[in-house]
Backbone:
């Protein structure tokens, strides 16, 4: 987990001799709407209080130095160097964002940068998107570029496509940039229109259980799923020419096209179409204050991710199975790209400690793996830290 931010700030000043600008960029959870974003669909994410902190200041030269405090690694580059992906994986997120700023016509000078993060990597909480958005905001602030947050999100997405090799949707970066305290955001991933819904979970708390199975999306079957969805769209277009993505398709369209599809493509498409319907249902439940309904729909999504989209795994399914049997647990699902990472759960506040104990014990007994637990709160999106940094801010 991340280092004490005051310590990092002091170290920056000792190494580079000046006071840094400090930017916080949050990770995100997604209440509902998984694998819909790259299908032009709807998602319902929220920024959380686990974050990346970026410390930056001008170097006074044409050269820049990047330091990963948590990995104890560094990288240097000239601002006129040709930008290509490198072997140090974390560096590529920075190179990708620099590339996007330069393509947008922004003039960048040399800078020094350090960063630390308390977002657990590989847990489906979008540590990479937070890094991209935090760095983008830091560059905008340092060089007074006034890049708006939607543009920052798009730059982060493009950076991940080009330099990290992951064809991610826009949701992760959008949530990190546009999140608001105690709000979830319903995002239309085609138009980028969005609406906020109050995230008042009343007597329930959001708890994440980490499967401790780590994944790298570039090495997973994420891109395969995207290609399968695109294949399904082409087949559906034969029965409905107005369909340009699965977001446009109905279950009736899918039924008419089913005979021409491989079975696996049919199930991928069915999941995505139904998941878009579930996003709207959760929004209605939140407006009505029906948190139990939200939990039920989350369980439906997990079943779809496990059986139809097939991006879950034994560890995630086991976590949901154990948690669902606990008194006070009203819903949960795997979250993120899949094949590992966390489950997100709604648990009655006065039963949280008991559920954590039962899930931790049951998971260890079933699979011999220790789960990590994150009790998260919904927080604001990316921004400059104006006041003194304190641990846990």
Residues:
């Amino acid at each position: 987990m991340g280092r004490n931010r005051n310590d990092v700030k002091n170290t920056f000043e000792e190494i580079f001799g000046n006071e840094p600008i400090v930017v916080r960029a949050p990770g995100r959870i997604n209440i509902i709407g998984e694998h819909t974003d790259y299908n032009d669909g709807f998602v319902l994410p929220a920024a959380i209080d686990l974050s990346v902190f970026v410390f930056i200041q001008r170097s006074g030269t044409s050269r820049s130095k990047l330091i990963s405090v948590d990995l104890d690694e560094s990288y240097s580059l000239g601002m006129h160097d040709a930008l290509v992906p490198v072997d140090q994986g974390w560096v590529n997120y920075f190179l990708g964002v620099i590339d996007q700023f330069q393509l947008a016509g922004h003039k960048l000078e040399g800078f020094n940068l350090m960063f630390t993060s308390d977002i657990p990597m590989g847990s489906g909480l979008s540590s990479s998107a937070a890094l991209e958005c935090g760095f983008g905001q830091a560059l905008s602030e340092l060089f007074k570029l006034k890049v708006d947050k939607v543009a920052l999100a798009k730059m982060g997405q493009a950076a991940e496509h080009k330099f990290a090799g992951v064809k991610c949707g826009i949701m992760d970066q959008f949530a990190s940039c546009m999140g608001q305290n105690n709000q979830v955001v319903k995002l239309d991933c085609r138009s980028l229109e969005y609406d906020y819904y109050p995230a008042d979970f009343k007597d329930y708390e959001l708890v994440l259980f980490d499967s401790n199975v780590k994944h790298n999306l570039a090495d997973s079957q994420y891109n395969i799923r995207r290609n399968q969805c695109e294949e399904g769209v082409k087949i559906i277009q034969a029965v409905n020419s107005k369909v340009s993505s699965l977001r446009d398709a109905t279950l009736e369209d899918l039924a008419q096209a089913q005979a021409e599809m491989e079975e696996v493509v049919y199930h991928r498409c069915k999941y995505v179409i139904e998941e878009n319907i579930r996003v709207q249902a959760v929004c209605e439940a939140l407006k009505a204050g029906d948190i139990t309904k939200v939990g039920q729909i989350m369980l439906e999504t997990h079943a779809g991710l496990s059986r139809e989209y097939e991006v879950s795994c034994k560890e995630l399914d086991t976590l949901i199975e154990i948690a669902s049997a606990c008194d006070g647990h009203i819903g949960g699902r795997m979250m993120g790209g899949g094949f590992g990472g966390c489950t997100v759960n709604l648990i009655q506040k006065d039963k949280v400690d008991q559920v954590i104990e039962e899930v931790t014990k049951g998971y260890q007994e079933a699979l011999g793996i220790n789960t990590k637990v994150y009790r998260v709160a919904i927080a604001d999106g990316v921004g400059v830290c104006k006041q003194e940094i304190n641990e846990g801010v």
